[in-house]
Amino acid sequence: QKVSVEMLDHLEHLALVDFRDSEGVERLQKAIQFADQLHEVNTDGVEPMDSVLEDRCLYLREDDVTEGNCTKELLKNAREKVEEYFVAPPGNIPLPKLEEQEAFLQGS
């Protein structure tokens, strides 16, 4: 199954991942083929679950603050930051125009 230009554009905007080389497109196509296997599973009569632990009572832990005032130390872990915020995902890429993607996909 080929990946359409529109799908590629949509995924790049969602994931901020560059699929402009043939290796990236091939990896994406393999991932889609792998995930498509889920359509073969018969789920007739199977009710959706709220949790994989439906048969257990889930308790929330107490949210006790034990440490604090470590903003500078935590921000040292950031690959990129703006003011006092992490930038995520790191390494945002400039996305190509739709025409560039069409030209690339025609060549793959």
From TrEMBL:
One of its GO terms (cellular component) is glutamyl-tRNA(Gln) amidotransferase complex. The keyword Protease does not apply. GO terms for molecular function: transferase activity. GO terms for biological process: glutaminyl-tRNAGln biosynthesis via transamidation; mitochondrial translation; regulation of translational fidelity. SUPFAM superfamilies: Glu-tRNAGln amidotransferase C subunit (SSF141000). Keywords: Transferase. It comes from the Eukaryota. This is GATC amidotransferase. It comes from Rhadina sibilatrix.
